[in-house]
User: What shape does this take?
Amino acid sequence: MIVTENLDIAYDQTLIVKQLNVEIPPHKITALVGANGSGKSTILKTMARLMKPKSGHVLLDGKAIHRLKTKEVAKQLAILPQNPTAPEGMTVIDLVTYGRFPHQRGFGSLTQKDKEVILWAIEATGMEEFAYRPVDQLSGGQRQRAWIAMALAQETPILFLDEPTTFLDMAHQLEVLNLLEELHEKEQRTIVMVVHDLNHASRYAHHMIAIKKGTVVKAGTPMEVMQPDIIEEVFGIQCDIIQDPRTGLPLCLPYAISRSQKEPVIV
Amino acid sequence: MKNDTVNQHSRTWVAMMVLVVGVLAIVFGIALSISVGAANIHLSTVWEAIVHYNSNQTEHAIIRDLRLPRALADVLVGASFAVAGAIMQGMTRNPLADAGLLGLNAGSALMVAVCFAFLPGLSYNSLILFSFLGAAVAAGLVYGISSLARGGLTPVRLVLAGAAVSALLTALSEGIAIHFQLSQELAFWYAGGVAGVKWSQLKVMTPWLVIALVGALLLSRSITLLSLGDEVATGLGQKTVLVKMVGTIIVLLLAGVSVSAVGPIGFVGLVVPHFARFFVGVDYRWIIPCSAVIGGGFMIIADIGARMINPPYETPIGVLFALIGVPFFLYVSRKGRREIS
Assistant: This one.
């Protein structure tokens, strides 16, 4: 269970996030959505203790995450940053093995348990046939799955992902999102991700948090968040919300840029 | 998935092979290095000089006082530069990182020149300290300059800043050398002179270098984690700031102490870790020991070469390394062009 209390986050002196209070529901998929520069990535990183807040707290099971031992946090929470790159020549199995770091001591020899988890993570992500291939030689979708496998090997109840589908083509995007859905269904993991595509958020998340300039505009189910006026406020576009004929979930069809947008628009 | 253990074993096997062959090459190199020089000495005499030392024999004295410390310094310093390069490349995720390229060697060299000029008669102990400080100041300058730039640190920017700072610091040392008429004293030392290393120096520098090398081994696993990127390493529960601090101190020790003894020798730190990686992959638990062994072997063999090219004159070893290192630098920067620019 993760909660933020009056979180202020700043880069140098510029306040990016002001007085943020959000709650991440356990055992659900939560999507953080917002325009570029809205601070959603910054919020994700701070909740995962990669960044220190200026003031306020992030509570993990009631304890301030920035005061906990970082290795203990790593047993509870795994985070996949945006666009991670593996050193040239590192194989998938090598990479996944590093996911066991929080559970290891000393020089890091692998226990039987470690080996089992590593194999399981590789299988769960469907990476068996690529296990011995260098990560840098894989396609974008395979590479992302390799990194997710590393995060899975961490065996944490909570999984954070920063834009896991960016730079992937449509099939690979679905592949990654289906994998996350499956992980949630099979293992009840709490998943928090930053996503750009609103319709993906609506389709895969149970809980959405819409962020504008570092503050929450609306948090709730996709039905509650996917409203034309909320989307106009968050993204500065006008849209129709229709029902997905297959899933019954809300879909966003943008048709215009809001007039109230102050920034000049160059078409 | 059954062959994972096999695969792990084969890599361990390759690494062990590199270590064994490397150590053998070093032992052979030391023997050869002692027997080859302006006066050629037979290997049996070398053995005799070590086992039954006789101070009345000139050959024994040459071996004991000149050749043996030189050979040992070669190995130590070669290993140190190589390991310093390996740690820097891993920590900064920069294939072009090297104590020479990033200005550390030039910083040490400047401080040594300053000491020669203003504090003559300084003990070697203190000289090492100044050399270490010189490396630290240069490192601070290079990192400062390159992170001030818009867009932050990129490998190429770091190397550019390193080149600029190196040029400035080297110019300053040369100015000091000319003004204080130290050119001759410093000239050979600049080009990378292992010839002048004495027992007294070796005694002071060895403990520092050994401590730093052992520290590097202990840190090796953390370096691999850092090579995945800061955010990933933090996410996995690593104290990245602490690891970087300790890593930096180790690098400064290795480079600073080595430069104080033999001058700024570049390119060993750049080239050797790439060789090690070619054999043992991406795990710094293997890259670091293998770099140490390859670096030590490489250095002692190059030093023998330096004595044999134009006898009885010695060719500066730094020049030899530049001959190998510059093409290699160009190769690495071309190969990695997409990711490093």
